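R.M. (postdoc): so does anyone remember the format we settled on? I'll just put the structure tokens first.
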């Protein structure tokens, strides 16, 4: 039981720091909600952080995982994105994207799951933060990559 409390405390501290950092970026991110509650089939689900990115006109869902990436995280994020798309997305907005932050990655699992096709990215977070410029660059790159994948998917859908 103590491990569960310790994990929750660590998660809370990281979420506070992550939330502050993303807001400091000041490049179009707007904080929407922390621990966003979603009720699906009568069950409560909680998304760690929800932001809106003004330039790309989309919600950005962020889930923080303590430990290494696990394939089941894809299903969880996909569920959250579908819910956000159905209940939170405004008519003039693009589909939401998700970012799963893990203490360790599983590159082969991530590659095989092809989560980018669902607008989901996985990134490894550091236990010690790199310089602000490096982190800004990484987050910016992730958003650009997501935007490009979504455009490519939309082009494919139009052709079919």
């Amino acid at each position: 039981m103590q491990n569960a409390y310790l994990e929750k405390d660590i998660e809370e501290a990281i979420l506070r720091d992550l939330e502050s950092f993303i807001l400091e970026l000041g490049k179009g991110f707007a904080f929407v909600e922390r621990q966003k509650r979603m009720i699906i089939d009568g069950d409560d689900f909680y998304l760690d952080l929800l932001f809106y990115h003004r330039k790309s006109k989309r919600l950005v869902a962020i889930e923080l995982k303590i430990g290494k990436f696990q394939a089941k995280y894809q299903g969880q994020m996909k569920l959250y994105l579908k819910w956000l798309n159905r209940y939170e997305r405004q008519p003039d907005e693009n589909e939401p994207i998700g970012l799963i932050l893990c203490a360790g990655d599983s590159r082969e699992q991530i590659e095989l799951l092809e989560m980018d096709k669902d607008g989901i990215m996985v990134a490894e977070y550091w236990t010690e933060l790199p310089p602000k410029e490096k982190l800004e660059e990484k987050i910016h790159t992730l958003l650009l990559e997501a935007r490009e994948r979504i455009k490519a998917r939309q082009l494919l859908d139009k052709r079919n």
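R.M.: ...and that's the designed sequence above, right after the tokens. Also worth knowing: Strands lie at 29-40, 43-53, 58-68, 97-104, 120-124. The two ends are 52 Å apart (CA to CA).
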